[in-house]
Design brief:
Elements (H helix, E strand, L loop, with lengths): L20 E2 L3 E5 L5 E6 L5 H7 L5 E8 L5 H10 L11 H4 L12
Parallel strand pairs: 3-4
Antiparallel strand pairs: 1-2, 2-3
Amino acid sequence: MGHSPVTGRRSKGTGRGPEWMITELGIFDFDDTGHARLCAIYPDVDVATVAAATGFPLRVADPVEVIAPPTEAEIALVRRFDPLGVRRSEFGPKELGRTFSFAAFATS
């Protein structure tokens, strides 16, 4: 899976294609050949989980970073711009049930 780094998007449009693909399990970038490559995962996910949920041979960056959970201020901002929770319609019950503890990521 990916896009052509030479010709860009396969459909009409401008630009050379996407730079990132963000999913409920992690973030992908695109390698020099245009293939999607896992470059970051969320704290409750591992590479094996992403591989099991991916419908194409998984390419993995070295290293794969762990994404910090959003800050309380970032969460408040999302809720401010989406007070009706429309964003929730994009996720299934399993994803909506995920929670993170800010204390687990606090630095001492």
